[in-house]
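ingest -> validate -> predict -> emit
validate: passed (alphabet ok, no gaps, 53 aa)
predict: started
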Amino acid sequence: MIVEHALLHVIPHRTNELAVAFADAKSIISSMPGFVNPTPSRRIEHFAPRLRA
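emit:
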């Protein structure tokens, strides 16, 4: 299994915009061969950045 992640730095007052954009992009991301389940998750050390694995 290959696990990849991307750290996305998000301006604190724009986190809702990221959630909306990710929801729109999820079907496109999921359609890539071998991609199973894109899941954004908030890091616990900081409020704004999100870790997508």
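The radius of gyration is 12 Å.
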